[in-house]
Each structure stands twice: as C-alpha cells, then as structure tokens.
Amino acid sequence: MPNSVFRLLFFMSALALVSFPGCQRVEQSTDNPHMEGFNLKDSDARAIEIADQVMAALGGRKNWDDTRYITWNFFGRRRHVWDKWSGNLRMESKDGVVLMNLNTGRGRAWEDGQEIAHPDSLAERLKFAKSAWINDGYWLLMPYKLKDTGVTLKYMGETTLENYGPSDILQLTFTEVGDTPQNKYWVYVNRESKLVVYWSYFSDAGDSEPRISTPWGGWRRHGNIMLSGDRGPNRQLSEIGVFSELAGSVFTSPAPVALGGE
To answer: Which of 8, 28, 129, 189 has the lowest tally of Cβ within 10 angstroms?
Structure first.
C-alpha cells in the first residue's frame, strides 16, 4: 500500500501545455498541484484532469490542506486518530495503544495497560502501527492521493457499472513508495458526481485479475471535506470524524479518550 506523510503542502507554478508530434506535455494544475515525485511525465493528461475533478468534488485542495485531525475505525480492528499536520498518530486496537510520530518513527506503546519498554519489542510495535496506518489510511483517503509521490496515473477508458452509473477508470501504479509498491489499482470515478464509486486492487501490476474489488459508498461531508466509509459487506470504515482542535492528551496519554462531536 503506498505511503505518504499526507501533508499536501507542495506548490509549483503551472506548466504550459505544449504539443509535440506523438506526445503531449501535461499541464500542471495551480488549484491541485501534484506532490513532488509524482510521475507527471508518464501520466495521462486525461487521467490528471479527472484526478483534479475528483479533488474539487471532495471539497477542494485548500480544504484538504486545511484539514488537520482525522479519525476512523478500520473494519472494527483498529481506531486511528491522526494529526495530518504534525504526523502524530494514536492507534488503538485489542492489542493496546500506540502513540507515535509518523515522520520521526519515534513513539511509545502499551499492551494490556503496561508500557512496552524493551527496545526491540517497541520498535516492532511502532513499525506495525505505521504499516497499519499506511494500509488503513489508503482505504479511507485514496481519492486525495491520486497525484501523490511515486504515482503514475493512466486513463483506462470508460465503463458503466451496475448500480454506479457511467464511470471513468483511472489506473494507479507506484514507484519506490510504501510497503508494497508493486500494487496496482483501478479506480472508478462517476462521470456525474466525480466521486470514486468503486475500486479494484491488484497485488501485482502485472496481474490481469484483481485480488479485491469493493464499492466506495456512503459519501458524506466531514468538516469541509468528503469521506466515504462503505466498502461493502464486512468492510466498513466507522467512527469517521474530522476535527480542527483536539486535546493534546490524545497523542500523549494511553488513557481512553472521547473526541466528542465534529
């Protein structure tokens, strides 16, 4: 699953759209600039145009950049509270609590109420927490990461999915990012709403058949952005919330926390 610190604060000036025989230089959006390291050269202009439309439908790049705290529960297995600006993460599961900074990799962890003190055990728990955040965050936030570091974006045509309407298909492949850069995704964007309505996950970019395909349903506004939690039977993202302020103890104390309303 691809990785990023999710801090979309990289800005570039617009690139002019220049045509050459047999190739096209892609125009860079000033409203939704790509992350540094996005494969602009090999990505399709049509795919990038659709990615920008998706970001606008989600609430726009500025509202995404201005969103600070996001929380969600991944399939009932783990609850994340993430400070997008600082990289601080709180992860709660049946195995305990992890409080860490994703940027530095440093943090603390507790199991059965006892702090994990052994350096190797702590390092293992922190590594797992970051990998879980990468995976679980992508299931929630993928549409915001279509122009992320290491991504190549291709337009695969259009189709009509039963129950989801006419859709454009985007293909995402990755280079040297995340825990599993060999993955591939097909992302289906409804032509009217410009929201993602379905995706297919391929374990390897060379695979012809997906390993997992699920809907993206239940879109609703949280704060100033749109988020979706319905991934089909037995795959529900719950407790989704966006906050502009949270108590500092959320990221410093293993004691149970109530986040309150958005």
So the answer is: 28
Longest dimension (CA), the chain: 66
DSSP string, 205-231: TT-SS-SEEEE-B--EEETTEEE--B-
pLDDT of 208? 83
For residue 30, give both structure tokens.
């000033």
What's the pTM value of the predicted model, to 2 decimals?
0.86
Q: Alpha-carbon distance 29 to 35, whole Å?
A: 11
- Per the structure block, which two tokens stand in for 72? 């969600």
Burial class for 259, CB neighbours closer than 10 Å (0-12, 13-18, 19+) = middle
pLDDT in tens, 210-231: 999 999 999 999 999 999 999 9
Residue 115 sits at φ, ψ, to 5 deg, of -70, 140
Identify the H or E element spanning 70: strand 69-74
Q: How far is CA 34 from CA 8, 26, 195, 208, in A?
A: 8, 12, 19, 28
Question: Which pLDDT does position 180 carry in this prediction?
Answer: 62
Radius of gyration of the CA atoms of the chain, in A = 19
Token digits of residue 29: 């959006």
Type of residue at 85: W
Q: Which residues of the chain have pLDDT under 70?
A: 1-29, 176-181
196-202 and 19-20 beta bridge pairing: unpaired
CA distances from 202 to 136, 181, 182, 185, 215 (A): 17, 11, 9, 6, 15
